[in-house]
Amino acid sequence: MASFNSYVAFGVLVIMASGAVMARDVDPIKANNCETKMTLRCVNEVFASIFKTGLVTDHCCIELIGLGKFCHDALIKKTLENPLFKNNDTSVILSRGAQVWNKCTLVKKDVSPSPSPY
């Protein structure tokens, strides 16, 4: 009977360990639907402003804030992992990403509807 209990305990440990390994393999971008929360036009605009040069329109800032900070940061980091962008200075790109985010939070505050006076 003790042998059976040992096998059960071992089986539980194996299942828990495999679950922990699978949890690490989940793509946070896909898990949070980050790829579907912005229009392609705004994705291109934000991308260009971070990885090239360009400005983000107020409309696209609103979409970016709707995307969320987590997705914004995750998408930048994922792009930097792409071999096509390996020659970019990571600190410069992360700084530009933060600047775009900060600018967009200000835009969002400026265009947010004011509370009804009634």
TrEMBL record:
Q: Where are the transmembrane segments?
A: none
Prolamin-like domain: residues covered: 33-104
Secretion signal span: 1-23
**Record's keyword terms, sorted:** Signal
Source domain of life: Eukaryota
Q: Which Pfam families match?
A: Prolamin_like (PF05617)
Keyword DNA repair part of the UniProt annotation? no
UniProt cross-references to InterPro entries, sorted A to Z: Prolamin-like
Q: Which PANTHER family match?
A: BIFUNCTIONAL INHIBITOR/LIPID-TRANSFER PROTEIN/SEED STORAGE 2S ALBUMIN SUPERFAMILY PROTEIN-RELATED, ECA1 GAMETOGENESIS RELATED FAMILY
Q: What is this protein called?
A: Prolamin-like domain-containing protein
Q: What lineage, starting at the top, does this entry show?
A: Eukaryota, Viridiplantae, Streptophyta, Embryophyta, Tracheophyta
